[in-house]
Amino acid sequence: MGGIDILVFVLFVASVIGIGLWKSKDEETSGEKGAQEYFLAGRGLTWWLVGFSLIAANISTEQFVGMSGEAADWLGMAIASYEWMAAITLVVVAFVFLPKFLKSGIYTIPEFLEYRYNTFARAVMAITTMVILVGVPTASVIFSGAKVISVFFQGQSLMGFDLGSISVGCWIIGVLAAAYVFAGGLKACAWADLIQGAALIVGGGIIAYLSLKAIGSADPQELLTTARNKEVSVDSLENAGPLQRFIDLNKGELPDGKLHMVRPLDDKKIPWSALIIGLWIPNFFYWGLNQYITQRTLGSKSLAEGQKGIIFAAFLKLVIPFVVVIPGILAFNLYSGDLKSLAEKKNAHLLTEFEAGSEKLIDFSDRFAETNPELAAKIVNHNATLLEETPLESDKQEVISIWGRNAELIEMSETSKIPVAGKLVGYDYDAAFPTLLKNLLVPGSGVLGFVLAAIFGAVVSSLASMLNSASTIFTMDIYYKLRKGASQSELVSIGRACTIAFVLIALLIAPNLGSPKFGNIFNYIQEFQGFISPGVLAIFIFGLLVHRAPRSVGTVGLILNPILYGALKLVAPQIAFLDRMAICFGILLVVLAIMTKLNPLPEPVELPVNESMNLEESGVAKFWGVVVVVLTIALYVVFF
Predict the structure, then answer these.
(1) Number of alpha carbons in the 13 Å side-chain half-sphere of residue 380
(2) SS (H, E, C) 305-327
(3) What is the C-alpha to C-alpha distance for residues 526 and 56, in angstroms, rounded to an integer?
(4) Which domain range does residue 403 map to?
(5) How far is 327 from 330, CA to CA, in rounded Å?
(6) InterPro entries per the record (predicted)?
(7) Are 181 and 308 members of one domain?
(8) Which of the 8 DSSP states describes residue 229?
(9) Tens digit of pLDDT for each residue in 412-457?
(10) pLDDT tens digits for 209-254?
């Protein structure tokens, strides 16, 4: 980084954090509304704060690293469904979920379950949400932020600490985020997010522009090696502009083309069947029932302000794939060699173990077999020998047979006593976006400092949001239930103590997420949330829409889902995790419907009412909500 970059970086980060803390300095954390001030910003957030805060809390390095990485791999534009389907989800949340939640005056989503079902349901959701929030997204954002630092500052040090180390990056990010939320609470997060959300989109736009510019001047011969389109040639690339080059390299028939929104039914991550049911489940859970996101909407000044803020966020979600997904695809086109080199470093430890005569099985990806066919064949024979199976035949040494045979052997390991040491990868796809930053941003221009500050601030914003929400759940759903007489200042103190504890737990987990066994970081997050999201969504649908559903529905839904999901994962691991979610969700709906039919409540449950909340709906939000839905459908038509 040049001197001007360092200056821009420091000034931007300092001003964002400073404005957030300044705006929250008048919070009265010891008065009778102390907890409401600290955890829900005094229920005074206006629509622009809600909208930008939702985006800044959501978009972080888990998207810039994880989603870009999935786009660089085989998924391409299909991964954009997480963003574009979220736009429609947000419209539903604004007009179905939010009115119920604001009317009841709840602090947390688990709190709603006690009013609608029972204390046990609240406790189960609170504990599982808190554990997953700290162990999955919080740890993942710390890891993915550290990934950016380690790739970008590889070989450099700060005060004697190696910035190329994932562990060092994790501690830098975790400590700064914890200090921020410790001091300021939700209001500090929301005001910082106002600036941070805009900077994120601008910074992502700069990278998208520079990526297209770079592909326009790249050597056609080198670009051709990354083509998914079998009809493209050096001559056609030489005569094409930047956008046409991007299209020509990545279009094509399924499963090769990367510009499709729909993937084949046997796709491991987003089969087309998931677009019908499976993908809606994590979307509705995340945007409507996930505490660290909904905490912003629960802090709305009024229902109308909350609805306008959510619809504004929905518009921004339509933009995200253009500044995250497309650059991820371009990263592979431009710098596949860099991603391969980084994968070799990632694989080094496992290959050393293999060469030393490991007594464990070695897994590898199809891309590893593609780039290292001879070594992959040796690994297959090694695995076959350990399992006392037939080695590869000499006439079946092509890549598909090598990878396919190894996949069969790895499946056999589940019934044998031989463990799998790890998985070798052909490319480090999680490094796609950091590699773009390293290769495209010129030191000394100030742009490098701004983009890095925007991404770094995004990490801090998301982590602050997650830590604030996890501490809110512990304080209000667990501690306050056990200690009814706790003062407002005591609740705030407990919330701050939780922030420190939770970030330390996440820091112990985060550095380990670089292991190939976790796969792509974005996939890791979604996979593990499957243990809770179908069950939570099912019981909230019954709680909000089926007024005579018995109180036992909440308990059964929360307990049965992880059992079903875990059983499917164990018995049928070949089923895509989104399809597993859909299967669990369908079974739960049937079970809960039978329970309601057999034992309906004699009278609907009366929920509490927050008399001070203005519950008049926004006509403006309704109009623009329809526009969002129409635009989303149009984007699917264009990229279908």
Answers:
(1) 28
(2) HHHHHHHHHHHHHHHHHHHCHHH
(3) 19
(4) 361-418
(5) 5
(6) Na/Glc_symporter_sf, Na/solute_symporter
(7) yes
(8) -
(9) 876 777 888 888 988 988 889 889 988 998 888 888 888 888 877 7
(10) 999 999 999 999 988 888 877 788 888 889 889 999 999 888 877 7
